[in-house]
Specification:
The chain is of the alpha/beta class and about 400 residues long. It contains 20 helices and five strands. Helix 8 packs antiparallel against helix 9, helix 13 packs across helix 18 and helix 18 crosses helix 19.
């Protein structure tokens, strides 16, 4: 299992300057952050460029867009690509720099927020099959034991109690009800929904009681101080908008592809990431400009979600891996892992919205996933993609 490979890949996602260097970029004539269609159309085709030709049979039905005859309104999905905020230097990024981003996202008014975290059932499967996924659950999952011990439940029992208890939760839950729901969510393997319930309590009510042990209290308190985007964006928005739970949509079951891959996979992919591009310095400089203030971070999110940056990511990573001409197509095994993971994550988004047709959904995910999520979700009958550029635009005076 190439656990280190996964960890390094996760770093190549966003605003942090060090995360930019392995990736290729748009043409020299295109300024970083400029997403005009005319300039995008003139982008040269590089080895890893997302330019596709059909050589086999075409799909019998083109599912792109929204079905014309739809019973009700489409489900709207905004895929927000982000850097992993806890990897940014504290000297350059403060949580209050998200103020303008949060204002714009609040105006979109999502009813569902999906985050890049593995759900309880996914983590349970990774633990039970730890021999196939060595170290993955330790890296990406939170141990539910502190909650299960105080609840006197197994994880499946806690998950069932969440579904029944959450549906019965009153509009204005008592502190005791919130504490117990936090414990149930944590025991079910949904720590960020647990943290959301915990955050809705008055600080004086965040105590060890109602199935919250002192050990669990400490874990919940720690989540509320996290610099992760699940806390700084998802929880902040959920509290502004009255949302009561978060949808964990990450998936690492696709890591079986890496388990089966030859030992040469890691060095081959490191070689892909090491490929130089003439615009690397400009992209590094552009990303540094997007730190240090609320206005800068807002511009940074616009940049991360632009076509220029998305091409930049693909051309220096997954697209370049697809084009790497090694004898055993080892690099394409890495590409297969990425695509399987993305498909399963996108399916989890569809599941999260499945019981609320017509809802507005916000997906907060590492920026390297955005182009793939948009493409996969656009194949659904009733999902309408929402433009990040429009949502993050400055209000018209």
């Amino acid at each position: 299992m190439k656990t280190a490979l996964i960890s390094v890949s996760a770093l190549a996602l966003g605003l942090a300057p060090a995360a930019c260097s392995p990736q290729a970029a748009p043409p020299a004539a295109t300024a970083p952050g400029d997403t005009s269609q005319s300039e995008a159309a003139s982008t040269p085709v590089l080895a890893g460029s997302p330019v596709f030709e059909r050589s086999g049979a075409a799909p019998l039905i083109d599912f792109a867009g929204v079905q014309a005859m739809l019973g009700g309104e489409p489900t709207e999905v905004l895929v927000l690509g982000t850097t992993h905020l806890n990897q940014l230097p504290e000297a350059a990024f403060s949580p209050d720099h998200l103020a303008l981003v949060l204002d714009r996202l609040s105006a979109y008014r999502p009813g569902i927020i999906a985050i890049e975290a593995i759900g309880g059932r996914g983590c349970d499967a990774l633990r039970r099959h730890a021999g196939l996924y060595p170290g993955v659950a330790d890296d990406y999952c939170t141990d539910p034991a502190p909650a299960l011990a105080s609840l006197g439940m197994t994880q499946p029992e806690a998950a069932l109690a969440v579904e029944t208890g959450f549906a019965a939760l009153p509009a204005d839950p008592s502190a005791a009800e919130r504490r117990r729901m936090a414990a149930l969510f944590f025991g079910a393997g949904e720590p960020w929904s647990a943290a959301l319930q915990w955050s809705k309590l008055d600080p004086a009510e965040r105590i060890a009681a109602d199935a919250v042990s002192e050990a669990l209290q400490e874990r919940l308190d720690r989540l509320l101080t996290s610099r992760n985007e699940n806390n700084l964006i998802a929880l902040a928005l959920a509290n502004r908008l009255g949302i009561e739970r978060l949808a964990a949509m990450d998936d690492h079951s696709a890591d079986i592809v890496q388990t089966r891959a030859p030992g040469s996979l890691g060095p081959v992919i490191q070689g892909v990431w090491a490929a130089e591009h003439p615009l690397d310095p400009e992209m590094d400089a552009a990303q540094r400009r997007y730190l240090g203030s609320a206005a800068g971070v807002l511009d940074g999110y616009r940049f991360l979600n632009s076509e220029v940056y998305q091409r930049f990511t693909i051309e220096g990573d997954f697209g370049l891996a697809a084009a790497t001409p090694d004898g055993d197509a080892v690099a394409r095994q890495y590409l297969a892992w990425w695509q399987v993971r993305g498909l399963r994550m996108a399916a989890n988004v569809v599941e999260a919205a499945g019981n609320q047709p017509g809802a507005r959904v916000l997906v907060i995910v590492g920026a390297s996933h955005k182009a793939y999520f948009d493409a996969y979700l656009d194949q659904m009958h009733d999902i309408e993609l929402v433009s990040v550029e429009q949502v993050l635009a400055d209000p018209v005076e």
